[in-house]
Amino acid sequence: MEIPSFNEYIEQSIKEHWDLDALSDYRGENFQYKDIARLIEKLHIIFEYSNVKPGDKIAICGRNSAHWGAVFFATLTYGAVAVPILHEFKAEQIHNIVNHSEAKLLFVGDQVWKELEADKMPVLEGIIGIADYSLLVGRTQKVIYAREHLNQLFGERYPKNFRKHHIAYHKDQPEELAVINYTSGTTSRSKGVMIPYRALWSNLDFATQALGKHLKTGDNIISMLPMAHTYGMSFEFIFEFCTGCHIFFLTKNPSPNILFAAFAELQPRIIIAVPLIIEKIIRKAVLPQLQGTTARMLLKIPLLRQKIKDKVCERLRAAFGGNFYEIIIGGAALNREIESLLHDIGFNYTVGYGTTECSPIISYADWNTFREGSCGRVAPRMEIRIDSDDPQHTVGEILTRGTNVMTGYYKNEEATREALRDGWYHTGDLGIIDEEGNLFIKGRCKNMLLGSSGQNIYPEEIEDKLSNLAFVNECIVIQKDNRLYGLVYPDYEEAHNLGLQDSDLTKVMEENRTELNAMLPTYAQLSGIKLMQREFEKTPKRSIKRFLYNDVEI
To answer: What DSSP string describes 326-355?
Structure first.
């Protein structure tokens, strides 16, 4: 199979959409495609004067913004390797990633920069602010000169104005390294996933085939997931930019108020979300409408049931702007009760599955053909195999191979050998696949617990039930001395609004435990529930960092 140059798609989109709006900070600065092209050229001048050669690394760490996007594209189109770093990482992690990746330049956001120490990143030629590309640290005279005389240098290079025909980007090869993406580490330390250009192209082509017919040039898109994670990078940024869309970056944490205002104003055509956002909106805005005495009574009347469901679906669609083709949910497991509700009211949602190592897509299905409870079917140019004797009924590890898969972990041969075996990428996830090819995820290999008599226990399945019980905001299940315990961060706000004290919550949790255990086989029942005083620490894609809680005292 012949794989085209990925950078050609960026070049072509800029030329085709030259005078259209491209990237905007929500209620802030706006850039047209030609503006992004100019920024890319100016950044290329900085790269040259910083002694950056094709294949060298450029790190980017900050909140999503138009300037962030321009740096990312400038890096790839120059032939350098982008190293996106999640801005939620601690300073020590950022120092380590910059050094481990051997980055020559670091572009950094204002908030992140306050926590960093330049002396702990001695390999850098320079540190540049993302907000205005100001030089924060320059370690060579050439870097300092380039930034101080950037407009002059740009003018000398293009004396008769910069035009479309001046654009000539690096022509990449399929196996060439494009991105090193450090994982957010739910179960272990971050590893640098080496993503080749073929994987970026394959994900772009997948999105174009699956969603391109529902998007048109100029459509609005809201980017709320971190672009330093492949999920947001591929499906809220790269695909839409190459389609000629107008991408709005929230630039702040996506609180419900900010989201609702942005959805209403921008009416995005496609929405990419993690379960936490969907679940919060539904628990606050939809479930109360359906759980009242009157609503429950009316739902029992066949003639009214469908009308009520239609009304709820209409209100939920309106909350997301009312103009979207579908909402694609991924990054973590969607609560089953919430999904059943979405399915029951006919809401246009779907759930996909992927990993950073596949940049990210492994499986997906359009909402019209999506099977409830699944994660869709295998993506183009990919294969899925379940490592079990009976893949339709017996849970096994999910293995995959194909064009989307990484080349390995940067400077970590041991981890690479463990993940890429016999030509297959071992995802570490457990699942089954039905006769129609629908993939159903059951949990993580590393999370699976062993019962006292050798039974396989999947804590995610217990957590799914526990999270639907009274005052449970977040929860995980751990094992201590062959006993299972639930750790619960309760909804303190709701409890205190109802006048409940912490001692009352302890009693409620004991009632929850009794109710939960009645739903579970003996070997999977909880011996106790411990209340947590603060939210669980999470990765930027909102997965709980389980390994931090394995040794919690019960």
So the answer is: -EEE-SSPPPHHHHHHHHHTT--EEE-EE-
d(CA 170, CA 6): 10
CB contact set of 466 (below 8 Å; sequence gap of 6+)? 472, 475, 477, 486, 488, 512, 516, 526
- pTM for this one? 0.86
Other Cβ atoms closer than 10 A to 83: 26
For residue 147, give every residue at least 6 positions away whose Cβ sits within 8 Å of its Cβ, in sequence order, or none: 46, 126, 128, 133, 134, 135, 138
Under the banding of pLDDT at 50, 70 and 90, the label for residue 447 is confident
Q: Which CATH code for domain 6-197?
A: 3.40.50.980
Q: What is the pLDDT of residues 188-246, one digit of tens each?
A: 467 999 999 999 999 999 999 999 999 999 999 999 888 998 999 999 999 999 999 99
CATH value of 458-549 in 3.30.930.10, 3.40.640.10, 3.30.300.30, 3.30.43.10: 3.30.300.30
CA triplet 314, 315, 316: central angle to 5 degrees?
A: 90
**Quick check: 171 and 376 in contact, CB under 8 A?**
no
State the Cα–Cα distance between residues 197 and 387, nearest whole angstrom. 29
Confidence of residue 283 (pLDDT cuts 50, 70, 90): confident
Inform me whether the pLDDT recorded for 541 exceeds 70: no
Instruction: Kindly report the average pLDDT of the chain as a whole number.
Output: 92
Q: Is the pLDDT of residue 481 over 60?
A: yes
- For the domain spanning 271-323+326-444, the CATH number is 3.40.50.12780
Within 13 Å, how many C-alpha atoms sit on residue 103's CB side?
32
Strands 361-364 and 396-402, by their bridges, are: unpaired
According to CATH, where is 3.40.50.12780 located in the chain? 271-323+326-444
Task: Decide if 440 contacts 365 (C-beta within 8 A).
Answer: no
Q: Which amino acid is at 543?
A: S
